[in-house]
Amino acid sequence: MDxxxxxxxxxxxxxxxxxxxxxxxxxxxxxxxxEVARTPRSVAPPAGVAETPLAVNxxxxxxxxxxxxxxPQTILKAEFVGIVRFSRPSVSEGTVLNAPRELxxxxxxxxxxxxxxxxxxxxxxxxxxxxxxxxxxxxxFAIEE
Amino acid sequence: MSVSRFKxxxxxxxxxxxxxxxxxxxxxxxxTVAIFSDAxxxxxxxxxxxxxxxxxxGPVARSYLNIPNIISAALISGADAVHPxxxxxxENARFAEICADHGLAFIGPSANVIKQMGxxxxxxSIMQAAGVPTTPGSDVLPTTAAALTAxxxxxxxxxxxxxxxxxxxxxxxxxxxxxxEHAFATAQAEAEANFKDGRLYMEKLIxxxxxxxxQVLGDTFGNVVHVGERDCSVQKPSHQKLxxxxxxxxxxxxxxxxxxxxxxxxxxxxxxxxxxxLEFLLSGEDVYFMEMNTRIQVEHPVTELLYGVDLVGxxxxxxxxxxxxxxxxxxxARGHALECRxxxxxxxxxxxxxAGTLAEVALPGGFGVRxxxxxxxxxMIPPYxxxxxAKVIVHAGTREGAIARMDTALAETKIGGINTTVEMCRRxxxxxxxxxxxxxxxxxxxxxxxGAPAAS
Lengths: 145, 456
Known about the structure:
The complex is a heterodimer of chains A (145) and B (456).
Chain A: H1 3-20, E1 24-29, E2 32-37, E3 54-57, E4 64-66, E5 73-77, E6 82-86, E7 96-97, E8 101-108, E9 111-117, E10 121-126, E11 133-134, E12 139-144
Antiparallel strand pairs in A: 1-2, 2-3, 4-5, 5-12, 6-8, 6-11, 7-10, 8-9, 10-12
Chain B: E1 8-11, H1 15-27, E2 31-37, H2 44-48, E3 51-56, H3 67-77, E4 81-83, H4 93-101, E5 105-106, H5 111-118, H6 120-129, H7 144-154, E6 158-162, E7 172-174, H8 177-195, E8 200-204, E9 210-218, E10 224-235, E11 241-246, H9 255-269, E12 275-283, E13 286-293, H10 300-307, H11 311-319, E14 336-343, E15 345-346, E16 352-353, E17 356-357, E18 360-362, E19 369-373, E20 380-381, E21 388-396, H12 399-412, E22 414-416, H13 422-429, H14 432-436, H15 443-451
Parallel strand pairs in B: 1-2, 1-4, 2-3, 4-5
Antiparallel strand pairs in B: 6-7, 6-8, 9-10, 9-12, 10-11, 11-14, 12-13, 14-21, 15-16, 17-20, 18-22, 19-21
Helix pairs in contact in B: 4-5, 7-8, 12-13
């Protein structure tokens, strides 16, 4: 799946949801399902999956995006059960990313499954510690564009 | 000698069976690890376990069948054994091997036995070699003439089946030689079209059989026992079981003992080392082996109540290398046990599954009543999995007493928000043919055809 295209579709879905006044909107096509939901007040912090205001579920991307008017956020989530290892140089909250890069990988059965920031931005939050066991869908990083 | 060999078990399943395994493990002093999909976050099986890992999104291929994620969860949680429950990976020999490769004990029989019994043709020939009666049948039939000869030897009616078959394709019931010629040509064409293999063989058609099965337990020391039979003849048109009981009522003289002997012989022949079930068809006084299930079955609590044996606990102890700890003579059936499956289904709409949120859940209780379930009021039943919500199992001194107890329990069972099989099960409990005992597998389809109240 083309990540940029996916993000584009999410943005469109989010804009449609906001402009139409819908609280919740879901669209499915082929292997991609996008569901967006608005919370009545500004934006809740992406503490857990359930509270996340805007979610994308696709076959490759299981990221959750959190859109605000000013700084759209993307939540990078674990797609595998395993141990998360930070890539060097390791990022922390506030780290500015000038280009796409690998932030960490989830080590699962001896395989490194990279977790990548797809474009330039700023690390808005780090939800896990280096070496921690993570499950599927667990939020790892929030990236602000 | 104790089960201290296992400290932590990962339960590679969901729903009521994951709850069941969790209980057995905790009673043996073993910690548990649950796995769940995004859609099952709120299930009781997650809440009851000591630890839980999300292994993928709702669809089973990406969560409960996601072997890399499940094995990873076992390894990072430090589990030393995996219980597969039923369905999903329970009869997947490759999964059993992968567990072993990662130093995880697979709580079930050996991968080799799973493989052998999973291949239906191989299972049948192994059983025949062990002296187990199987459905009489022919070899591959090259011509219509060969089919006519085979049919006259087997006796009509017969069933033509595709060698490569499955899903009813290339299957034809044939009642007379006159029908055979046409049936052979159409079945061959259908098999050719569906499987690119037009080869056919023939089996004797067992009319209106009863479905009986025998529970066995084997350990790694060569001990094998049977834990009685179950009658599972009350089946939906799709052949899924709805009501099970033990002992099987009104059996012809000697059949029960014969079934038990056959099952023990067969389990010994394959070197079986866990809980397993041999399924048979009963027609008149004849029994025919169908298949062996190399896992714990949905209806195992019927046997547990009747014999007072913890089958899941036994599976765990056997996998930990313990001997069974009891002999055949120690196993005594007392009274009668019945199980009704409470499914999220609309019985009068062909058992169409009904996903949704449970508005109300009131489960029955009392003397001799057991409920195995993972649901509670407010739980959302996701559309990805089977429709089983709860199993109501009762035990009483007599069959009549068990039916009365079940009817009372079902009357107490209130599940609101979605359609369930509760009312259908009550109709079965009050049906004269069922109360008489010994119904065949056409019982429930005929009850549905006749009884759909206020339909049409």
